[in-house]
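Q: Given only this backbone (547 positions), what sequence would you predict?
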């Protein structure tokens, strides 16, 4: 039986599609969604074979949604219902992974043909997925990033520390697994306060160009930590936060998840539209809380908000108790009684003194106590953080390792300097060197022009000094005999060792006035506009009385 989900805000169109499906054999209607939010929830919940979605469904854009759902449910075939069949519409549908289009007005023959082809494709994909890895050891077609979100029941419970250390430890202990950490605490992202990373581009910059993302754009936005974790950080300017809209975030995640095996989200502790969108995209959500009454109340408010928004059920959430100690009054059993969520057996003890040196130095590797890393790996195992080997398209020879079987990391161990991380840095340095060479070639004419101007200015200064000396000699000679030619000859003779005599001229500039000019030679055969070519001045002459 082929199960079909319909996404159409137009009720008349939805009823027409339903009646057409009723006329077909082996076809079952699973759900009818009137909004993109309902459609996302239905596809993730029902796991249908075919998705029929109208291109005017809202409020979110349909094509990016089809692309995202195709990644999350690779065996669900999407068909775009549209009133236009031009080349642009068909190309757009194919680019986001749709299996075809159904044009309006509806035709029974067209609908039957499209659904049959889509159902066959879906069945084939399901068979390939269920078959598991091939004989060559390659992974199945679900080689996409697994997304796990960590949220705080309230501010200050340690969610950022937890998710950051988990990301770094997985990258260190699971060879070949590509890990990305996304800081979604947009207003007060604290990941850069815990780790030493260069923060040039933020998630807001990707959101601004979310309609035109590529793998290169995503790679440029990542900040690489020495452990091998790529980080997409929150904006440093609070004004850029508004650029990260739910629609833009969906497109950013759709692009990022194609490049990594595991994505960890720091969801913060505030319920926002972007956090709600992120929850819809998560495969697993962990709420970090402390064993105190304020944290329990915050956890309850968070669960109520998520359920009222329809983004995540309390029963589907995992709860991690952080900073547990013998002195607290809220025990693990008490937490289980206060929530319907699944509370993890592993608790993380209060470790502020252990973590303080690492936090102050912004180097998590400074945590020397093996117990801390052991607890984190138990948490990872309990929530199935690493469920499959790295995708062969990213790691041809990588092998996943059970996290809890790895030894505690030594503070001085820097595996991020080898393997993929080292090769990535070498490739990046080579690319930057090539880019710098091209920029240098492009700037050569500018450097040449600046050099010419500087040389011409130096020549002008020297010519000015010599012109002053020539004027003194010419005035003295003219005051003695009153002959301009003799004055010019005397000036030329005076500067013969320093300047071209032909460039020195003396003329009568009126009664009792002579003008002395010194020509400035051109630089490299080129006169630069705006710069003088002669230095000249007029001087008064007092004639010597005849004896």
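A: Predicted residues:
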């Amino acid at each position: 039986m082929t199960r079909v989900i319909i996404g159409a805000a137009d009720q008349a169109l939805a009823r027409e599609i339903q009646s057409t499906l009723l006329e077909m054999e082996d076809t079952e209607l699973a759900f009818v969604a009137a909004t993109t939010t309902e459609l996302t929830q239905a596809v993730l919940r029902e796991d249908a074979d075919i998705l029929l979605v109208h291109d005017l469904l809202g409020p979110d854009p349909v094509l990016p949604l089809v692309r995202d759902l195709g990644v999350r449910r690779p065996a669900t075939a999407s068909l775009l219902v549209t009133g236009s069949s031009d080349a642009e519409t068909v190309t757009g549908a194919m680019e986001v992974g749709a299996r075809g289009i159904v044009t309006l007005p509806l035709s029974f023959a067209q609908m039957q043909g499209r659904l049959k082809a889509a159902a066959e494709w879906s069945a084939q994909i399901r068979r390939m997925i269920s078959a598991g890895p091939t004989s060559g050891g390659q992974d199945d077609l679900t080689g996409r990033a697994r997304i796990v979100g960590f949220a705080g029941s309230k501010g200050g419970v340690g969610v950022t520390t937890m998710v950051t250390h988990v990301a770094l430890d997985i990258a260190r202990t699971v060879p070949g697994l590509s890990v990305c950490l996304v800081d979604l605490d947009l207003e007060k992202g604290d990941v850069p306060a815990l780790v030493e990373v260069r923060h040039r581009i933020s998630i807001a910059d990707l959101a601004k160009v979310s309609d035109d993302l590529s793998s290169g754009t995503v790679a440029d936005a990542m900040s690489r930590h020495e452990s091998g974790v790529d980080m997409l950080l929150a904006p440093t300017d609070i004004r850029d936060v508004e650029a990260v809209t739910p629609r833009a975030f969906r497109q950013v995640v759709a692009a990022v998840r194609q490049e990594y095996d595991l994505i960890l989200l720091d969801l913060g502790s505030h319920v926002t539209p972007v956090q709600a969108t992120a929850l819809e995209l998560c495969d697993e959500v962990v709420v970090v809380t402390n064993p105190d009454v304020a944290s329990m109340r915050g956890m309850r408010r968070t669960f109520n908000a998520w359920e009222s928004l329809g983004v995540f059920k309390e029963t589907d959430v995992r709860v991690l108790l952080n900073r547990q100690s013998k002195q607290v009054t809220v025990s693990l059993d008490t937490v289980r009684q206060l929530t319907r969520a699944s509370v993890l057996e592993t608790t993380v003890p209060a470790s502020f003194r252990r973590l303080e040196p690492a936090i102050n130095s912004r180097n998590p590797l400074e945590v020397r106590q093996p117990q801390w890393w052991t607890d984190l790996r138990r948490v990872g195992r309990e929530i199935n953080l690493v469920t499959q080997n790295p995708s062969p398209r990213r790691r041809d020879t990588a092998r996943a390792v059970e996290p809890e079987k790895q030894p505690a990391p030594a503070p001085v161990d820097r595996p991020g300097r080898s393997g993929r991380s080292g090769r990535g840095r070498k490739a990046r340095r080579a690319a930057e060197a090539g880019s710098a060479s091209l920029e240098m070639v492009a700037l050569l004419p500018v450097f040449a022009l600046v050099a010419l101007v500087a040389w011409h200015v130096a020549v002008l200064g020297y010519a000015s000094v010599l012109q002053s000396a020539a004027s003194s000699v010419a005035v003295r000679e003219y005051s003695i005999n009153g002959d301009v030619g003799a004055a010019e000859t005397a000036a030329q003779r005076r500067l013969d060792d320093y300047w071209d005599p032909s460039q020195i001229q003396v003329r009568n500039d009126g009664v009792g006035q002579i003008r002395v000019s010194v020509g400035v030679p051109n630089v490299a055969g080129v006169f630069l506009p705006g710069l003088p070519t002669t230095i000249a001045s007029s001087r008064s002459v007092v004639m010597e009385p005849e004896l």
